[in-house]
Amino acid sequence: MVENIPTPFDLIGKETLHELIDDFYRRVSIHPDLAPIFPEDLTETVRKQKQFLTQFLGGPPLYSMEHGHPMLRARHLPFEITETRAKAWLQCMNEAMDEIGLSGSFRENFFSRLVLTAQHMINTDENQSMKGERM
Predict the structure, then answer these.
(1) Which secondary structure element, helix H or strand E, spans residue 9, and what is its range?
(2) Residue 37: strand, helix, or coil
(3) Is the CB of residue 39 less than 8 Å from the CB of residue 134?
(4) What residues have CB less than 8 Å from 26, skipping those under 6 apart?
(5) CA separation (Å) from 60 to 37, 41, 107, 113, 115?
(6) Which tens digit of pLDDT belongs to each residue from 4-38?
(7) pTM of the full structure
(8) Model confidence over 80-121: pLDDT tens digits?
(9) What's phi and psi for 25, nearest 5 deg?
(10) Which spans in 14-123 are helix H?
């Protein structure tokens, strides 16, 4: 007998995931360490993140269908991502999770996966000057 085990995407749901991402990018847009490496208009960034996290959490492969393989590290190489910026990114996500009331083991598991992803994105030594221009 095959059980239908819900994916993390099934557990959070599209509406809650989109609310999380919208809240997250409101924070990113004003964060002093992150805003310089993001475009002023985050509309397309938000749209792609919704596609990516849907897929990341086991939902439909929306990101890959439109953009091909995510290749996260390669796609982020043009941006100076330091440990400070990775931590700031995670702080914004943690605060957004608080804001929408995400809790329990789902939140813990999701956030731990994001920690690994953020660490993997670091591509610039903290000792190099952080620079960046809005894209």
Answers:
(1) helix 8-12
(2) helix
(3) yes
(4) none
(5) 28, 26, 20, 18, 23
(6) 899 999 999 999 999 999 999 999 999 999 999 99
(7) 0.89
(8) 999 999 999 999 999 999 999 999 999 999 999 999 999 999
(9) -70, -25
(10) 14-28, 43-56, 62-67, 72-76, 83-100, 104-121
